[in-house]
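F.,

This is the one I mentioned.
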């Protein structure tokens, strides 16, 4: 049996390949590249560049055909992709069409889409500035600042944001990124899903490359083409560079070739270190010889006709091809050479239906068969395949686009020739997209509204474009108002709507729309970002009162997200004046008040929002959070209960309610709520609060895994580090505690509780200078922080700063009624200053307030001894009695109790007992700070009983030497 001959399709490809005009050097070099051994390949990265119309896309299609002839697997990506994830999906889809599916990648990307959908609610919350509760919000972490600078965080280049992104302030992005990260983390059930949604490139790209490697083992070459790179380069540059030259995502098979084609040079910032790997192919217009060759191939040989075409086209390949298609036989058939190439094309086409279809299909920005049928008249409905074959039409899987140069020319021609038809056809297309949108709306409204539906948004965007083109004056106010709805969906949608204004203004020749588009684009790209857009709309768009109110509310959200709270409050207030029924304005202002600790005002606004919309569950929970933060726990619980009744899967409500239960020490109920919150989503805030319950019950070992889980979900969660540090401290693991507290404070530099805890740990480790600095910082942030004042007073005393200690303890007594502890501490400070009478007044009051306090009795005995008063013996006997086994003065601090006994027996000059108690003290494994405190207390007795100096110094040496031996 004879071998299989070539198919008709193969013969057609060969014929077209041999008939390809020009670019011989590039075609030859590409063929040679395919002949290389992959491991010896010197050329694997090609960049085709040149101005519009020089034939870059035509060359790409030719190179793709050559690659497939050589049994390579190919894929071609153009500006239709919206992000990097979609880029990989397009490549995978095209591979599947060639029988080499990337099944593992396809499965993972389907999971990503599902998890992304589940997290959208969390992202929407982040986009509307829904922060974690006041007091538990951390500032931007270094990692998120770095990420924003790389264009991988915030709302700029997160997958799905599209190619029309611009630079934003990294620090501003980072602040929102951390909040968004925390919120998205609460929407998903495990760490892997969180990382998949938050860092899809890191999760998907390695799998994509592994699957690519599997294909590469079965095929001689894989060739990836990236056409229209001038549009997609901003999106793909860093990722493509990393895939090609770094190990960030894993290895790239050696038999992969990459061809990029775009108008501009590769960006130096991204590619400058790798230019030696790039084979640069700059394309210019055809030479006259190449243009003549093409015309000859099309049967155009009359010299006068050729001269006119060369003059008209300026040898730009796309125009040479267009003019050659009609095969004019004489100059007379070409007509007036001053006309445009498009006019000549239309004149040559004798079929009226084809003429009309070619013109009409320039109107849509992109064509599929349905849009084609909406654009053309009835007699041309079957010509879609003919149109797709035209040289100025790029066809990708049934979606067609005109070459930009040709489309612009056709639109200008028709706008001038027939304004009535221009308006009629754009209106017809707008109605067609509106009908498509309407068919979607026949289904149930999605839970997040129609703006969250990608297909719906696409139809709405095209409808807006065509209405602006049809009647710019009438459509412009509605389009400007629509920008506010677009922003409510997200900043990416806002950018796309602005781009539509720019494009429609240019295509319709409308100065008003063009000016608005340019001004809005400049505002969006400027330092003010979206806030500047709303300023522009408020001042110039002629919005009605309701529209202006929404614009102020949107700008308020922008200010609130950037923590410009005063401006946010002003804008929200203006919104409520213009539209007293705008729920989002009251809710937004309430959130801003809450973030600035003005909870009474926040509650008033949440009340109003709930009155207007009783189902607005976010207002109910936010009001409950303000009640909680002002310790109005009963009202807070009522709100959280109601919110859970309305939304049984609202995890944030469960966590808030659990916090109230925890604050009221109803620990079992708290744990039940936190368990439910974590069941609904791996919420780091709920996990940390569950750990806090265990800390409060001194079950520190059980608390540690909760904090670890929280940090696995949110690695830069400062509050989790701080509370885990507290657990380590409770377990006596002070060095680990200090490390966690340092990290938590690095992430949250003004976290009062964290700084206070670190000061206490430092004091235990005898790091008195650092402890004093921490307590001082807490007092600077919160002047009425009683625990910090007490702690600083103690440390000041240990540092010999007794007057400063007296000042701190006096401040505490001004903030709350004097108690035994504070009176004893100040009395001791007075005693160490030699002010015995003042010390005795405080200590007498301390003993009266705390008759079972061994320390108060001891300090009283010291002062009485210094004053030579016989009552000393009574108080010393009381110390021994209170601290005897089973005594009523025993505390939870064994080392402290034993230390007091050492001091009492030292003052009584009972050296054997004192020495035995020193051994007991050291057996309790005291921290360095406790040892220092006892040694200083012993040395403090030298002025009181100078005759005992040798014995006291001997005890001090014993303590220090034995302690050193155990370290």
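My design for it:
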């Amino acid at each position: 049996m004879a071998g299989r001959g070539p198919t008709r399709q193969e013969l057609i490809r060969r014929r077209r390949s041999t008939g390809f005009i020009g670019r011989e050097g590039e075609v030859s070099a590409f063929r040679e590249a395919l002949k290389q051994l992959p491991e010896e390949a010197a050329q694997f990265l090609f960049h085709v560049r040149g101005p519009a119309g020089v034939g870059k896309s035509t060359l790409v299609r030719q190179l793709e055909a050559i690659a497939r002839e050589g049994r390579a697997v190919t894929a071609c990506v153009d500006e239709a992709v919206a992000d990097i994830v979609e880029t990989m999906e397009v490549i995978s889809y095209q591979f599947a069409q060639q029988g080499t599916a990337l099944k593992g990648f396809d499965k993972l990307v389907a999971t990503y889409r599902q998890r992304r959908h589940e997290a959208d609610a969390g992202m929407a919350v982040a986009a509307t500035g829904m922060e974690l509760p006041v007091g538990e919000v951390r500032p931007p972490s270094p990692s998120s600042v770095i990420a924003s600078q790389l264009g991988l965080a915030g709302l700029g280049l997160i997958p799905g944001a599209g190619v029309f992104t611009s630079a934003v302030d990294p620090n501003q992005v980072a602040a929102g990124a951390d909040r968004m990260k925390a919120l998205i983390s609460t929407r998903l059930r495990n760490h892997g899903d969180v990382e998949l949604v938050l860092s899809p490139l890191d999760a998907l790209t390695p799998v994509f490359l592994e699957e690519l490697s599997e294909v590469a083992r079965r095929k001689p070459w894989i060739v990836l083409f990236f056409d229209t790179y001038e549009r997609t380069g901003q999106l793909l540059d860093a990722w493509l560079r990393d895939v090609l030259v770094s190990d960030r995502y894993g290895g790239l098979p050696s038999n992969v070739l990459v061809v990029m084609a775009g108008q501009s040079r590769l960006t130096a910032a991204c590619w400058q270190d790798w230019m030696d790997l790039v084979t640069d192919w700059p394309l210019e217009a055809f030479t006259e010889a190449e243009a003549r060759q093409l015309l000859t191939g099309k049967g155009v040989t009359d010299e006068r006709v050729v001269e006119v075409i060369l003059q008209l086209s300026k040898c730009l390949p796309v125009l040479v091809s267009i003019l050659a298609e009609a095969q004019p036989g004489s100059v007379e058939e070409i007509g007036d050479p001053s006309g445009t190439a498009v006019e000549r094309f239309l004149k040559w086409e004798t079929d009226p239906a084809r003429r009309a279809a070619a013109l009409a299909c320039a109107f849509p920005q992109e064509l599929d068969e349905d849009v084609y049928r909406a654009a053309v008249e009835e007699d041309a409905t079957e010509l879609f395949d003919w149109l797709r074959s035209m040289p100025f039409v790029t066809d990708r899987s049934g979606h067609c686009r005109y070459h930009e140069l040709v489309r612009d020319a056709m639109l200008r021609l028709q706008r001038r020739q027939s304004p009535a038809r221009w308006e009629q056809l754009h209106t017809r297309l707008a109605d067609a997209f509106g009908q498509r949108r309407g068919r979607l709306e026949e289904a149930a409204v999605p839970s997040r509204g129609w703006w969250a539906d990608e297909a719906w948004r696409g139809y709405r965007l095209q409808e807006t474009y065509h209405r602006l083109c049809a009647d710019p004056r009438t459509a412009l106010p509605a389009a400007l108002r629509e920008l506010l709805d677009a922003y409510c969906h997200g900043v990416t949608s806002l950018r796309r709507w602005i781009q539509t204004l720019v494009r429609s203004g240019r295509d319709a020749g409308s100065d008003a729309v063009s000016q608005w588009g340019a001004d809005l684009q400049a505002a969006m790209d400027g330092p003010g970002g979206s806030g500047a857009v709303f300023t522009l709309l408020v001042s110039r768009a002629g919005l009605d009162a309701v529209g202006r109110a929404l614009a102020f509310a949107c700008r308020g959200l922008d200010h609130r997200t950037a923590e410009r709270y005063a401006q946010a409050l002003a804008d929200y207030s203006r919104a409520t004046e213009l539209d007293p029924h705008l729920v989002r304005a009251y809710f937004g202002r309430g959130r801003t008040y809450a973030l600035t600790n003005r909870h009474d005002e926040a509650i008033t606004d949440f009340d109003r929002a709930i009155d207007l919309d009783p189902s607005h569950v976010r207002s109910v929970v936010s009001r409950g959070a303000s009640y909680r933060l002002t310790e109005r726990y009963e009202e807070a619980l009522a709100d959280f209960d109601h919110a859970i009744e309305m939304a049984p899967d609202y995890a944030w409500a469960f966590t808030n309610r659990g916090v109230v239960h925890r604050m009221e020490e109803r620990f079992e109920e708290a744990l039940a709520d936190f368990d439910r919150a974590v069941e609904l989503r791996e919420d780091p805030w709920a996990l940390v609060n569950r750990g806090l319950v265990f800390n409060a019950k001194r079950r520190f070992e059980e608390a540690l895994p909760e904090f670890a889980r929280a940090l696995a979900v949110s690695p830069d969660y400062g509050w989790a580090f701080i509370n885990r540090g507290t657990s380590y401290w409770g377990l006596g693991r002070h060095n680990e505690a200090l490390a966690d507290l340092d990290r938590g404070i690095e992430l949250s530099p003004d976290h009062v509780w964290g700084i206070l805890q670190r000061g206490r740990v430092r004091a235990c480790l005898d790091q008195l200078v650092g402890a004093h600095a921490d307590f001082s910082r807490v007092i600077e942030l919160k002047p009425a922080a009683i625990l910090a004042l007490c702690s600083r007073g103690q440390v000041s005393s240990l540092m010999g700063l007794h007057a400063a200690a007296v000042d701190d303890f006096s401040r505490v007594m001004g903030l709350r009624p004097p108690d035994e502890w504070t009176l004893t501490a100040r009395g001791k400070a007075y005693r160490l200053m030699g002010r015995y009478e003042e010390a005795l007044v405080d200590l007498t009051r301390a003993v009266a307030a705390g008759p079972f306090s061994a320390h108060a009795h001891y300090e009283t005995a010291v002062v009485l001894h210094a004053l030579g008063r016989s009552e000393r013996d009574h108080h010393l006997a009381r110390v021994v009695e209170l601290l005897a086994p089973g005594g009523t003065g025993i505390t939870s601090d064994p080392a402290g109790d034993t230390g007091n006994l050492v001091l009492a027996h030292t003052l009584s000059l009972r050296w054997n007992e004192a020495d035995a108690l020193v051994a007991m003290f050291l057996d309790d494994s005291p921290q360095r700070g406790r040892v220092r405190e006892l040694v200083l207390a012993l040395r403090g007795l030298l002025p009181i009983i100078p005759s005992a100096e040798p014995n006291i110094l001997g005890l001090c040496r014993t303590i220090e030497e034995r302690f050193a031996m155990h370290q």
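The beta strands are 45-49, 73-77, 222-226, 256-262, 278-282, 393-396, 399-402.

Talk soon.
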